[in-house]
Design a protein that fits this description.
It is a single chain. It contains 11 helices and 22 strands. The chain folds into 2 domains: about 325 residues, Rossmann fold (3-Layer(aba) Sandwich); about 90 residues, GMP Synthetase, Chain A, domain 3. The protein is an alpha/beta fold.
Length: about 425
Amino acid sequence: MTWLAAAADRAGDRPALHGPGETLTYTELDTRAHAAAGVLAARGVGPGDRVALALEGGTDFAVALHACLQAGAVAMPIDVRLGEGERELQTRTAATIVDRPVNGTGPGGDSPPPAERQPEDIAILVHSSGSTARPHAVELTYANWEASARASAQRLGEEAGRVWLCALPVSHVGGLSILVRASIAAATVVLHPRFDVDVIADELARDRITGISLVPTMLARLLDAGVRPRSKLRCALVGGGPLAADLTERAIGVGWPLAHTYGLTEACSQVTTSQIGAPGTTGPPLPGTRVRIATDDEILVAGPTVAPACLAPDGWLHTGDLGRLDADDRLTVTGRAADTIVTGGENVAPVEVEAALETHPDVVEAAVYGRVDREWGEEVCALVVVTAGSGVTAEQLREHCAGALAPFKVPKTIRLTTDPLPRTPSGKLLRARIG
């Protein structure tokens, strides 16, 4: 039985999705997915075939996703904003491309019976966000997703997940995991294809949302707009990048129930997650997940949520991220190995310098990078987004950093701008585009 069919059996009248202009109960979603599976079968799609889903986040995407699982096919979400060449690269192994709503004639008819799938079979193929390199395909199994859903519910509490607001791209694991977790738990998703401050404010004002997923930039924009949480909100899960201390303080100060998370596509999103209301670190590993720090500070991950094909011969996922664990096994991410700046023989983690810059009241966000230098090997540089009209200077920001950082970490060059930094749709900084 599929996750959706099981949810419909036990909670058929419960809303599964509130999408733009449409609400579907679990029975309605299951009926439409069953019919859509018949459409895929008519196209020749069978168990194990890859189906590219080039649809915006909404009820049509959810129907197509569950139709793939009903047919035993591998769902492969595609970002609809990709250029033609990028899209062709990601869809070249697909048996078919779904780029419009899949409408069947209803249950019965030509719809195939649910395909028998095993826990180790691949359910969904997700492309990584590609913040440091070309996106690569990650094959996540049914067992991976189920382990992730159970562990997330244990850490955040089932109450938080009852009605979850998703405005993250469903082509990336952060948004997609919300839909999958909800179908496993028979919970409700309020689904919007893109982030809009006014839309999110209206949804929160209705006081039905118990959980919401955000990246730090989204949280900052909501705070700047004066958006406040309502009484039913149990968790605001923030991931996709560092959560600055001043942003944390602002949010907690007005009642946002923050939990900070570190996650990866290769692990169905969450790897570590802080307790709600204690986001000083990204928290300890989720139940069942193991994290250790290698001798070169690389974060290694293992456990039932990790895609089997992503494990190295030593049995660990080598993340390429750098971090440290405290005495309570809570993780702090300090950067990426590939981003490390070596200046005068000293290693500098850009995220540490960015965090120092972002404590200045006139700084909106910052990006730190290395530039080749004859004397130092690399020099530390920064592109800093400042508040329009603030009048802050580069030298003032250097002095601000000098009060918090070792001298070799203080940027030698600081460029100021009021334009936002380039980021992936999931909020990760595109450091390679800066410099």
